[in-house]
Amino acid sequence: MSEEIDIKEMPIDELYELMGEDLYDGYVEEVVEEVEEALSRDMTPANVLTNGLVAGMDVVGVDFREGILFVPEVLMAAKAMKGGMKILRPLLAETGAPKVGTMVLGTVKGDIHDIGKNLVGMMMEGAGFEVINIGINQDVDAFMNAIEEHNADIVGMSALLTTTMPYMRVVIDAMKRKGIRKDVIVLVGGAPLNEAFAEDIEADAYCRDAAVTVDTAKKFMAIRQSAN
Known about the structure:
By secondary structure, the chain is of the alpha/beta class. It contains ten helices and five strands. Helix 7 crosses helix 8 (167-178).
């Protein structure tokens, strides 16, 4: 493959640029090769993540929000991101590289929709967050256990049915009873939700799509860090 020879001769900034472009286009194999090439030049895993994969996913997020990219294309980009992350994740764990934050993510009890939730998870991971995706139809105990076990900074709850939306309040009330509500950022999303509902159940924010979720999560984490 001629591109393989090319990437070995590329300056690192050009390699990162190409990595971002290939991620945008959903080219898994190319992204994996480019991650390996960057690591072979003694770039740190955190450097490759930030300047290559996260930078690429940032562009995906912007274009998704502006309607240039659609869900199938974002899923392809996320798949390419996952390919690169498969190599970087164990290395990041070894080096103790700082992560932006930890998010527990799940669809609430009675609801089995997960495409939107999974997209949020992929894009949050693409932004440098550790994501614990607990799946669909999750009850209050599942959320509470995951928040506690992973010392979550953020909990994201999803619902696509109007009948399951109220269960989000059940989880938030449980967090209040446990005395951890103020320690955890609560983001909610799903087609039937809106800002008024999020305010009513005392969530921190309603996020209409995956790109907005990433922006909102980053904003809340920055506020939290500046307060410490």
